[in-house]
Design goal:
Layout (H helix, E strand, L loop, with lengths): L5 H17 L10 H14 L41 E2 H18 L5 H21 L5 E6 L2 H4 L15 E5 L5 H17 L5 H20 L8 H7 L10 H15 L2 H10 L18 H15 L5 H12 L11 E2 L5 E2 L6 H20 L4 E3 L2 E3 L1 H16 L23 H4 L16 H4 L30 H4 L3 H16 L3
């Protein structure tokens, strides 16, 4: 091939530069994943209920929900408000706790020591509360706060004057989903605390076993109980069945205890409880994909043939996420974000990204890959897909906006969150009653309190985002969006490229 003349080369260079200006801008430098990790953990301080400690860093928040549980003669203070409202829902809270703990179990070694401590503090704020919910024999408290009344108000948690009803399920009524997820949360968190606080770890594990016994002994969905159905549905109703939570709880107890009884449970009950349904979903209501990834670890490391179907199902899930796979069918926005219809899309993005990274680690440590028909998908491919999602969320997207509040130069200003949108009680000590906050809800002004680290529901299927407080599907943060992102960011903090 001949060397180009100077004139033709100059023409080529000018054309190339012109073409480059038409393309979407690429990230100039890697994101500051350590900073994003710190903020993702800090978010949980803004969701705290109960007596706040002296070292509370989200200083615009104050004590709230201090009478929770008193109508039943039990202390139910603490825990987290799940989203932008002032209700404590046990089902998504337990899932949040499981994913925070799994983040530490898998990626705690990748976290800076200070952020590992902060993550453990975030987990403990939840586990202390979960222990209270199962502290009375043969019952589990599944929710605090009347959502129908709460959702009719726009007020700070510090000003709550709505009913703090405590919703409880007593045996023999079923709550397999909430109790099973609580068992998973306590078992996973027992592993997270094992080295730093072995005494607390043992307490968590002992109570995880108790919660699982309740879940398995009285099988059924908590939202089928007539006494509470109208107050837990349609908010966190069990839409997909309780069976996956039983297997999920057993799988985490197997991981935490190495007890053969839980392995037997998974092996003997997998088919009857729907493990082979291979539902490609993972979130607060559906644990199938996470269950398959979690259990596949034991097959990959020990080749227990009876668990091979879990590895095959985990492969199948991963194959739907990779464009090069013959079975790829995941939807993406034009800008490349994983998209599932229904609102609050980032809950899918963060949980799927987490599973991609966890499974990539399991495969790499055992020198294996995912099998998609005749195509082999490497751990590197799984990580690249996760990285594309993370970078989109942090700002590499058509709007050039970070969907994490407080990260980057452009991020959502009007999130659907009561405490963030109403002036802090420190700045505005006068009570803001139920309807008094409506003026702040309807305002187009930015929220006065920055809920640092909050991940909002995220953009629509066309990458659009209006930053509208009233559009809760796009602008409301939740604990279960953030929880898996902690693990994802921990991985990329240690492996940025």
């Amino acid at each position: 091939m001949k060397n180009p003349s100077s004139s033709s080369f100059l023409h080529f260079l000018v054309s190339a530069l012109a073409l480059a200006t038409l393309r979407p801008p690429l990230a100039i430098a890697s994101h500051d994943y350590v900073d994003a990790l710190s903020k993702a953990i800090l978010f949980f301080e803004g969701q705290r209920s109960g007596f706040l400690p002296r070292d509370q860093r989200m200083a615009w928040r104050c004590n709230s929900g201090l009478s929770d549980g008193w109508t039943h003669g039990i202390d139910l203070t603490g825990g987290y408000y799940d989203a932008g409202d002032n209700v404590k829902y046990g089902f998504p809270l337990a899932f949040t706790t499981t994913l925070l703990s799994w983040s530490v179990v898998e990626f705690g070694d990748s976290m800076p020591p200070s952020e590992l401590r902060n993550a453990l503090v975030a987990i403990r704020w939840s586990t202390d509360y979960l222990l209270k919910t199962i502290s009375q024999a043969d019952r589990i408290f599944v929710q605090v706060g009347d959502p129908n009344i709460d959702h009719n108000c726009w007020e700070r948690p510090e000003d709550m004057d709505t009913a703090r009803t405590a919703y409880v399920v007593d045996a023999p009524n079923p709550a397999s989903d909430v109790a099973g997820e609580t068992a998973a949360a306590l078992a996973a968190s027992s592993m997270a605390f094992r080295s730093s606080d072995p005494g607390y770890s043992e307490t968590l594990l002992r109570n995880a076993i108790k919660a699982f016994e309740f879940a398995d002994s009285y099988r059924g969905a908590y939202s089928d109980n007539e006494d509470i159905k109208n107050d837990v549905c349609p908010f966190y109703c069990d839409f997909d069945g309780y069976q996956d939570e039983l297997l999920w709880g057993a799988a985490w107890l197997r991981r935490a205890t190495e007890n053969e009884a839980y392995l037997d449970y998974i092996q003997n009950n997998g088919q009857t409880l729907g493990a082979e349904e291979n539902i490609n979903e993972f979130g607060w209501d559906n644990k199938h994909a996470g269950l398959n990834v979690l259990v596949s670890k034991e097959f990959l490391e020990g080749s227990i043939l009876s668990l091979q179907s879990y590895k095959a199902s985990a492969d199948s899930f991963m194959c739907t996420l990779i464009p090069d796979s013959p079975s790829s069918h995941i939807e993406f926005t034009p800008g490349g974000l994983i998209y599932k219809p229904g609102g609050s899309n980032l809950q899918h993005v963060t949980s799927i990204s987490f599973l991609l990274l966890v499974y990539a680690n399991y495969l790499e440590k055992t020198s294996q890959s995912a099998t998609c028909g005749g195509v082999s998908i490497s751990p590197w491919s799984l990580r690249q897909q996760a990285k594309r999602q993370v970078d989109y969320v942090l700002g590499d997207n058509p709007k050039g906006m970070s969907y994490m509040v407080g990260y980057g130069n452009s991020y959502p200003q009007r999130i659907h969150h009561r405490g963030s949108s109403i002036p802090s009680i420190r700045d505005h000590p006068d009570k803001v009653a139920c309807k008094d906050g409506s003026v702040y809800y309807g305002s187009w002004n930015p929220n006065p309190n920055i809920l640092v680290g909050a991940l909002v529901g995220g953009p629509g299927e066309d990458d659009s985002f209006e930053d509208d407080r009233a559009d809760f599907r796009e602008s409301e943060p939740t604990t279960y969006i953030n929880a898996p992102f902690v693990g994802v960011l921990a991985y990329f903090a240690a492996n940025p490229n």
